[in-house]
Amino acid sequence: MSRFDSILRRALGATAALTIALGAAACGGDSTGSSGTRYNVVSISVNGVTDNSAPFLIAEGTDPDFGEYKFEVVSAYIELIGNNRYRVVSDVNAILGGAPFPFDDTPEEGTYSVSGNTYTFTPSDDSESPYTATLSNGNTLTYTDQFESVDGTLTLTIVARK
């Protein structure tokens, strides 16, 4: 695998994991199915490094073979859209080789169920596994998970608030 492939897979893997994980924070609010309950992502932590203001940096650096790369989440929110369904919308900027790189910002949608303060989310995309998030203080949603990347284990924590 070339250094370019390694960087691309690491950054896109982290960003893809983030996009999937953002749905996990889609909990709380009105469970009766009313639409429009929105939670904005307020911090993202990657391997213990927390970014508390948008844009949220996911990966950045310079590779001798490839050049400059940077992946960041400009904004993201989670919305309950009724009937125990959720939608995640994110705006991701990607730069590869010092130039903008197109990134698919298609919203994730799926269904969720609630047990106590634990929410289980099932994406509509059958290739993605269900995941969970925890509600605290009635307005703070936290999701933490680990993902394997070419550089080792990636720990991701996302916090969203009403």
* Radius of gyration from the alpha-carbon trace, in angstroms: 16 Å
Order of helices and strands: HEEEEEEEEEEE
Number of strands: 11
N- and C-termini, Cα separation: 43 Å
Q: Characterize the main sheet.
A: 8 strands, antiparallel, barrel
**Average pLDDT over all residues:** 75
Number of H- or I-type helical stretches: 1
Q: How many distinct folded domains?
A: 1
Q: What's the arrangement of strands in the largest beta sheet? A: 1-4-5-7-8-9-10-11
Unreliable spans are 1-9, 23-34
Q: Beta-strand percentage?
A: over 45%
* Broad structural category: mainly beta
> What fraction, in percent, of the residue positions are helical?
10-25%
Shape descriptor reads globular
What does the secondary structure layout of this molecule look like, with pairings?
Layout lengths: L2 H20 L14 E10 L2 E3 L4 E8 L3 E16 L2 E12 L2 E2 L7 E8 L2 E6 L7 E6 L3 E10 L2 E10 L1
